[in-house]
Amino acid sequence: MEAKTLTARKSGSFTKVLGNYSFVLIFLGIFLAYLIINSGATTWSGVMNILRHSAVVGILAFGMGLVIITGGIDLSVGSMLPLIGGLTVVVFNATNNIILTLLFALVCGIACGLVNGLFIGVAKMPPFIVTLATMLIYRSIAQYYLRTTGLSIYNMDGTLSSYESIYGFGQAKVLTVPVVGIMLLLITAIMVYVSTMTKFGKQVYAIGSNEKAAHLAGVNVTFTRVMVYVITGLLAGVASFLLLAMNGSVDPATVGKSYEMYAIAAVVIGGISMSGGKGKLLGVLFGAMSYTIIDKIIASLGVDALINDTIKGSILLVAVLIQMVVPAVRSKFKKSKN
């Protein structure tokens, strides 16, 4: 009898761990499919490119994940990229200083996030409406300011002495690993630490689980909500700087288009619940890389580029549907077992 109970407990623990880290299995499954479709043509450089191409969306997705855990949403992250990136180009061309350029990108990102945070946290406006509005505003400002300069694109001045340093940083590798990929891994470590080991991280989960209970427990809900959007803006600043370092230019008409959807998809595939209060930020890294691999699989299959977003959108719908169906099935199974 005791042996059976022990076996049941082990089985339950294994199932629990499997459920908590299912994003790893999803990633491995998608990666295996990619290897099979490529018929052994995948190289180590190609694998490292997955990490490189996941960097910008992945960093945005960590901010999105934090917001979603609180039960909110941020549709403006894609539009922050051209605004922050474009204005950062202007600062770089005017100063020829990498440190000032980086600081400006971070401060500009914080400012964009603060605007969202004040409307949502202080004014108590719905996150969907606020970030939908700022999504339109941020890209519009980026495009309008560009037109006033008479240029067609925000382009870093390649004749400046610091250009090679910043562009070289975007292309650099350390032991074959892209530096931008290392930045993604560093952000992952920081965000996982913040969400699991700090008081702020616990407050974020508490708000997403039950805002009223969190308030009664002494959590400053308004401040925490504002800070979550500020952090999201800060991460958008980091992503904008890396995007600039990789490409050397920003086109406000195309850069960041649909990135809010890609970020949400990375969060959902990573196992974070859209209802808030559940999930691990570590899953965002695997979710972002999974989505990048899906993009490469679509390209490998030679699918028409115009249908690309249809496939990605369908994957997002399926991922959210699974999130809703699986817990319901588990609940029914437990009830029938009891």
Structure description:
- The protein has about 350 residues and is mainly alpha-helical.
- The protein has one domain (about 50-325): ABC transporter involved in vitamin B12 uptake, BtuC (Orthogonal Bundle).
- Helix content is about 75%, strand content about 0%.
- The strands form 2 sheets. A two-stranded antiparallel sheet has the order 1-4.
- Strand 2 and strand 3 form a beta hairpin.
Rg, alpha carbons: 21 Å
List segments where confidence is low: pLDDT < 50 over at least 5 consecutive residues: none
Strand adjacency order, main sheet: 1-4
Q: What count of structural domains?
A: 1
What's the CATH C level?
A: Mainly Alpha
* Largest sheet descriptor: 2 strands, antiparallel
CATH fold annotation: ABC transporter involved in vitamin B12 uptake, BtuC
User: Outline, from the CA principal axes?
Assistant: globular
Give the name of the CATH architecture: Orthogonal Bundle
- The tally of strands reads 4
Helix content: over 70%
- Give the structural class: mainly alpha
Strand content: under 5%
Distance between the termini: 18 Å
Question: Mean pLDDT, nearest integer?
Answer: 89
Provide the succession of SSEs: HHHHHHEHEEHHHHEHHH
Q: Tally the helices.
A: 14
